[in-house]
Design brief:
rod-shaped; 158 residues; 2 helices; mainly alpha
């Protein structure tokens, strides 16, 4: 048995396996450990990236909400300003219309008064002409009687 090369081949193989077990085992375990560490590192980096992405998304949502609020505030403000401006324009228009109406009524009154005065002047001139014409045709005694009667009527008015 000790002389059989197969026996010594088997013994040397067993010794080889025993001697190589520890280095192969540590290489194998070390290789696996490094792979595990690399996988853990990748997982942690992925989790960190995911967490960062979630934070950025929340920040973006907050900014979007803030912008929506600002837009709503601006729209409300613009609506209030436009309503105020509209009311102001309506009020100014009313005031302008009232002013023009008042001015027009005053102008109409002036024109009426002017027309009445013109008519009075024309009537007075016509009456004076008629009276002059009538008095020219009267005798002196009739003129004196009319003059006396007119004077007595004027005295009774005072």
């Amino acid at each position: 048995m000790f002389e059989d090369p197969k026996f010594w081949l088997l013994v040397s193989f067993i010794i080889f396996v025993i001697l190589m077990y520890k280095p192969f085992n540590s290489m194998l375990i070390g290789g696996l450990d490094s792979k595990i560490e690399e996988i853990k590192k990748n997982i942690n980096e992925s989790l960190q990236s995911f967490t960062d992405a979630e934070m950025r998304m929340k920040e973006a949502e907050e900014r979007t909400a803030d912008l929506d609020n600002k837009i709503n505030e601006l729209l409300s403000s613009a609506k209030i300003q436009s309503e105020s401006l509209s009311k102001s324009i309506v009020e100014q228009t009313k005031q302008t219309i009232l002013s023009k109406e008042k001015h027009s009524l005053e102008r109409i009154k002036q024109i009426e008064n002017s027309a009445i005065q013109t008519i009075k002047n024309q009537a007075s001139n016509k009456l004076n002409m008629l009276i002059s014409s009538y008095l020219k045709n009267l005798s002196e005694s009739d003129k004196s009687a009319i003059l006396s009667k007119s004077i007595s009527e004027l005295k009774s008015l005072n």
